[in-house]
Design brief:
Belongs to the LytR/CpsA/Psr (LCP) family. Pfam families: LytR_cpsA_psr. This protein is α+β, with helices and mostly antiparallel strands. The chain has 10 helices and 12 strands. α7 packs antiparallel against α8. The radius of gyration is 23 Å and the shape is globular.
């Protein structure tokens, strides 16, 4: 019996050490390999005077009390983030809120003075995924970003294929050609219902404008129109994924992304999300307006509306005052 216990103990320790080593290696090599340099420092502070201090305090209190897990999803095009989505998941209510951040969002940084460097999609190239986490938290009034997930075009293609494609309805002719891309890019979709495989899905996500004279239509509001199309694609992909075994999908697609989420945590998060209904997935865009500054087009986010959006995500319910009740009574009587 003593010999059996001794052999079992040795075998268990060997297995534990081997398994731990494999998990450590997997988690280590899953990290984003573009570190960037320096710390993200915003060059111009937002005008905080129009935000009441108690509003910020309320938001931070809600954040502290919440069990929400926040991610930033980055779709990469070289050293720029072509797609950025802030994803907040509430495991208690099985609620997911997704806020798309326009790539042209105005975000000036100390030491980066070029017009293109003042766009949010330039942060990744200079500071890496960890730097984007910091910048997104700064943009969203210090709401924490727990994890990043980055995916390249080839990774997105593989993930779409792994779930059997994504159904979409295309309302207008898409026709765009870029012979100078590597490899040359050709996007062509007739209007109607499509089940897009990985290759075509990536093309759909990249489409923004038509080649002049091709007969195709561009999104009327440029990148903002493309974001709405991406959100619809994402929602359909989530719906498709929910019909599958979610933890299995996560472990399958995990190898196509780079992230600071450990494999063990990813499986836990996926298990928490099992049973989440599609109506509990809410997709919005960062509030703001697009306009030119110094000859360059930027998207300027609205601080007040961003605060309201975050309060809504974190479940803030404003208490009615006696004045509010009196106004409602007067309105009903009128």
């Amino acid at each position: 019996m003593k010999i059996f216990i001794k052999i079992f103990t040795i075998a268990f320790l060997c297995f534990f050490i081997l398994f731990s080593g494999l998990v450590w290696s997997f988690n280590y090599y899953m990290k984003d390999n573009h570190d960037g340099s320096g710390i993200v420092v915003r060059a111009e502070e937002e005008d905080m005077d129009n935000l009441e201090p108690e509003d910020i305090d309320i938001l931070m209190q809600l954040v502290d009390e919440s069990s929400r897990i926040n991610f930033i999803l980055l779709g990469l095009e070289g050293f720029r983030s072509d797609t950025m989505m802030f994803i907040s998941f509430d495991p208690d209510d099985k609620q997911m809120d997704i806020v798309s951040i326009p790539r042209d969002t105005y975000y000036p940084r100390v030491g980066y003075d070029g017009p293109g460097k003042k766009k949010f999609n330039a942060v990744y190239g200079d500071h890496g995924a960890a730097g984007v986490k910091t910048a997104v938290s700064d943009l969203l009034l210090n709401v924490p970003v727990d994890h990043y997930v980055t995916v390249t075009y080839s990774g997105a293609e593989a993930i779409i294929n792994s779930i059997g494609g994504v159904p979409v309805y295309i309302s207008h002719l898409m026709d765009y050609e870029d012979p100078y891309d590597d490899p040359p890019l050709k996007i062509y979709f007739e209007p109607g219902n499509h089940l897009l495989n990985g290759k075509d899905g990536v093309k759909f996500l990249r489409y923004r404008k038509a080649t002049p004279g091709s007969g195709g239509l561009s999104y009327a509001d440029g990148d903002l129109g493309r974001i709405r199309a991406q959100q619809e694609f994402m929602k359909n992909a989530i719906k498709k994924t929910m019909s599958l075994r979610l933890p299995s999908v996560v472990t399958t697609t995990f190898r196509f992304v780079r992230t600071d989420i450990d494999l063990q945590d990813a499986i836990i998060y996926a298990t928490m999300a099992v049973g989440m209904e599609l109506e509990n997935v809410n997709m919005v865009m960062l509030p703001g307006v697009a306009r030119y500054q110094g000859g360059t087009s930027y998207f300027f986010h609205d601080l007040q509306e961003t605060r309201d959006l975050l309060l809504q995500i974190y479940g803030y319910e404003e208490e009615e005052t006696e004045e509010d009740v009196e106004e409602e009574i007067i309105s009903i009587e009128d």
